[in-house]
Amino acid sequence: MKFANVGFVGCGSHSTNNIYPMLKYARCRLQAVCDTNEELASRNARVFGGRAVYTDAEQMLDSEKLDGVLVVGPPQIHYEIGKKVLERAIPLFIEKPPAPSLAEAEELARLARANRTFVMTGFMKRHALTYRKIREMIASGAFKPAAGFIKYSHWPATDLKWMLLAMSIHPIDLAIGLLGDVAEITSVMYQSDRAISLALTLRFASGKWMQLMLDSSQPRIQERVEISGEIDGGNALIVVDNIIRMELHRQGMNGIDLVTSAGTPGLHEIDPVFDLDDIKTWRPDYGIPNMGQNSPFLQGYAGEVREFADAILDHREPWPGTDDTTKAMRVIDAICRHPDGITRL
């Protein structure tokens, strides 16, 4: 089996806890580690099997033969170092947000295309097991979505752009990943001295729509996704609570539903229906841990790193790919310009 030799720029707490450990699940080898703090770079190389240590990203790029580079740090680092990677025609993985602004994200996408390579943004929720299952059901035609709802809350923030770029970009990109390109945004913002609440309606090019309730007043992240549609011609609803619990609700006939026209049974004649197929639930089996049900796979961190390595080795665009670099950023840019009102993209 072939493995991609990758370089990694950034040794902060997020990359060290959530991204470096995922390399072992992917077809890649850690060739070089870079951080301006040599002690941190040496530590991560030692812990995760890196073969070389650098404190200068350009020196690493010029000295090593790399099949791909991961850059995880502040947005400005994603943009500045990301440009240097793409200018050398090396596939690039950057954590979200891809850049501090839409214009800079668009520049990264242009560079990737011009140099016949790709840029992949770390929208890990696209690879979370529950959301991946929904996407597969939609792609196969088993589930035909009509509309959706996402409630997403996280720790306090009073700056709208920071709130959107730092955290709320996740549910925005998830909506795009499930229902496609956004055509119109309706936004209403409420702000206090310690938090922002944002009510969004995203209308997609397909005609479908999704409501997002984004809030920055909580002590921890809370997430709920609901998507209504059809399965086998009947109404259905998929619900995901905090990524790890998924429910499929299907419309059944129970009680009053049976009394629809003359000649049907009276209420006193109807027995309640106990249908185990009415609601199906999936959750991890924590009693017997396995790769497919541990946190890295449930949340999507392992899936995104796997996808990056596979795209390199298969010589193809990853998912999300270069075009996806700007889609959520375009929505965020529109909201920041018009937090109260309607914007057509």
What does this structure look like?
With 345 residues, the chain is α/β, with parallel strands linked by helices. It folds into two domains: 4-124 and 297-328, NAD(P)-binding Rossmann-like Domain (Rossmann fold, 3-Layer(aba) Sandwich), CATH 3.40.50; 126-290 and 329-344, Dihydrodipicolinate Reductase, domain 2 (2-Layer Sandwich), CATH 3.30.360.10. The protein is 33% helix and 28% strand. The chain is built from ten helices and 15 strands. The protein has helices at 13-19, 38-48, 57-63, 75-87, 102-114, 129-140, 160-179, 295-299, 301-314, 327-337, and strands at residues 4-9, 28-34, 52-54, 68-71, 92-95, 119-122, 144-153, 182-191, 196-204, 209-215, 222-231, 234-241, 245-250, 279-282, 341-344. Strands 14-13-12-11-7-10-9-8-15 form a nine-stranded mixed sheet, covered by helices on one side. β4, α4 (75-87) and β5 form a beta-alpha-beta unit. It is globular, with a radius of gyration of 23 Å. The model has no long low-confidence stretch (mean pLDDT 94).
